[in-house]
Every structure is written in C-alpha cells, then in structure tokens.
Amino acid sequence: MAHRTLAFSTFGAVIKLGTALVFAGAMVSGCSENSSAQSVHAVGSSTVYPFAKVVAENFSRSNPDMPSPLIESTGTGNGIQLFCSGLGPNTPDMANASRRMKPSEFDACSANSVDEVIELQVGLDGIAFAAARGGIMLNLSPKTVYEALAERPYGKAQTAKTWADVDPALPADPILVYGPPSTSGTRDALKELVLEVGCASNPAMEALKESNPDEHRQICTEVRDDGAYVDQGEQDNLIVQKIIGNPRAVGVFGYSYMEENSDKVQGLPMDGVEPTYENISSFAYPGARAMYVYVKKAHMRAIPGLEDYMKEWVKSWGKTGPLARIGMVAMPESAMAANAAKVQSMTLLTRAELEAE
C-alpha cells in the first residue's frame, strides 16, 4: 500500500468540519514522479469479479502507463463493509455488488465520512439453479425452493428430506443444494427474489410481515443448516465442481457461471422458465437481478485512473461488448444511457433512492 499512501498524502490531512470534508492541500515532495504508481482498488461480489477483471485488463491495455487495478473477491456484504469503513489509502476505492446497497449500508458509509458515493448499474445477471448435464432435472418454483430450503417453512419444523416431500411431482432424491454464504450478494438475491416470494405464497406470512417484520424476515429467509443446503463460500466455481461431481445435487450461482460451464451443467427452470440470456434480460426468469459498482468520489483526486476505469465499464457493458461475451446480460438501452450519464456527471447516490426501491 506504499504507493497508495504516497498518493493520498497529496491530499494532506482529512479534516471533518460539520458535515463537510476539507482536504488540506499540502504537497509532498516527489509525488509527481510517483503519480503513475497509484492504482484502483476494488472489492466485493464474486459474481461481478470476473467482469471487473475483464474491465481491468482492458483498462490496462488502454492505459499502459497506469498500474492494473487490484480486484478482490470478498463477497458483496464484506465488500461494501470495507468500502464504507472510511476514506484513505487503506480503504478500497470501489465496491462490486450483486445486489443494491442497503439503506443501512449507506448510513454506515456516511457515518465514516464516505458521504459521496456514485452508484452504477453495470449489467444484469440471474440466480441460476443448475445441475450436472445428465443429472437431476427439477422444474422448480419459488414456493418449492422455499419449502425445501427454509429453516422453518411458514414457521413450522422443517421435515422435508427429498424433493418429492416438497412436491410429489419432483423426484424422490435427497435435497442437496450447494450455494453461496450469508455474506454473498447472490445469497441476498436468493432470499429476496426466490425465498421471500415463495414464503409469500402463504397468506399468513403476508399478515405476519405487517404485524412482526423481524419474525417474518427470519421465517422467510433463514436457510436450513442440517446439510440439505451447503455453504461453499465465495467460490462459485467450487459450486460448479460440486454439482459436476454429484449428479443428484443442485447448485445456486450467477447465470454467468452457468454460461461459462454450459458444456458441464444445465440450468433448471423456475416456474417453467429457463435461465437464459433472453429470459433474464426481460426479467421473465424469476431470479433475474441487477449488478452494481460503487465508487468513492472523494478518491478521484488521489487515484487518477479511477475515472478512466469507470469509463472502461461504460465501454464494456454493451450487448456486443466484452462483458456480454463472458456471460453478462446487457441492460436495456435506456439503463445504459442513464448509467453512462452518471459517469459523465459524477452523479451522487442519495439515501432516498435506496429507500424508494
């Protein structure tokens, strides 16, 4: 981090006066000779990671005088926590996320002086349920997934051992699902897009949401821990390997990983809809979701390549661009234009935008 410390020392001390941050402009002797050593540092989602790496590689080819961005796969939750920990050389410049920042995370950022955040939606992905080619075939729904994976489905004891226990139309194979950990944005999206939707099929749960939101959240999103759901950490490729090794197992990961391994795995339909590019781009597939990157505007002056790296994202996310070629689902044209405009104007995210979602 020596080069980042030098870069940030050109800011001088960070002084908090009321709600404003004032960067004293004390110059450091010799910093101009070392300015090329500054590098972008991004942390976060394992799903966004391969796309961020491609953008970083293209950035390096376009900017040979700048060091390659450092991209780390920490999981969305951990990545945003690191991002929101403060300003300065020991904190990341960007967070990659496979779900949108939460209002509570925005508050944590603000409390640590990270109060100028730029949000970019960079593309779409899907939470794919998949099995090995030639392996188990299931026509799932949010309701069957919830009843199979919930710790206490509808507030009752979990008794399902096989898929047939959940739905007689499904095979009598043991429920075994390899998926992401609680720190993953994919897990968050699984809860929001699948488990909560399945839980809502019971009218009593909708009533509970009004009377006791905390209990509703626990009943509708807590995943069983008796071995039917196996947390594989932030390594989606490991989940792919696990289901390839066990044809009766199911994996949960981003669509891009399924696309990358389409010769080895097959997507499982949800409500009869296959997890395909077209079905995700139209949101016909229930597991479709947006992917984001978050940027500290305050780091722009210390990391000159940061703005150029953001512009590289804009150049890369088109339907025929390099990200689509490795599995990203492109956003609608209107969303591309809106997010490109954010880079141009450095539009800041507000808490009201997050609350409105």
Could you provide a short overview of the structure?
The chain is an alpha/beta fold and 357 residues long. It is built from 16 helices and eleven strands.
Task: Summarize the structure in words.
The protein has 357 residues and is α/β, with parallel strands linked by helices. It has 2 domains: 2-124 and 291-356, Periplasmic binding protein-like II (D-Maltodextrin-Binding Protein, domain 2); 126-288, Periplasmic binding protein-like II (D-Maltodextrin-Binding Protein, domain 2, 3-Layer(aba) Sandwich), CATH 3.40.190. Helices cover 39% and strands 16% of the residues. It has 16 helices and 11 strands. The protein has helices spanning 2-9, 31-34, 49-62, 76-83, 103-111, 142-149, 163-166, 185-199, 203-211, 213-221, 236-245, 255-260, 277-281, 305-316, 333-345, 351-356; strands at 14-17, 20-23, 41-44, 70-71, 94-97, 117-132, 177-179, 229-231, 250-254, 265-267, 288-296. The strands form 2 sheets. Strands 3, 4, 5, 6, 7, 8, 9, 10 and 11 form a 9-stranded mixed β-sheet that branches. The protein has a two-stranded antiparallel ribbon with strand order 1-2. A hairpin with a 2-residue loop joins β1 and β2 (20-23). α6 (142-149) crosses α8 (185-199) and α9 (203-211) crosses α10 (213-221). The longest helix is centred in the middle third of the chain and has 15 residues, at 185-199. The radius of gyration is 22 Å and the shape is globular. The model is unreliable at 10-36 (pLDDT under 50).
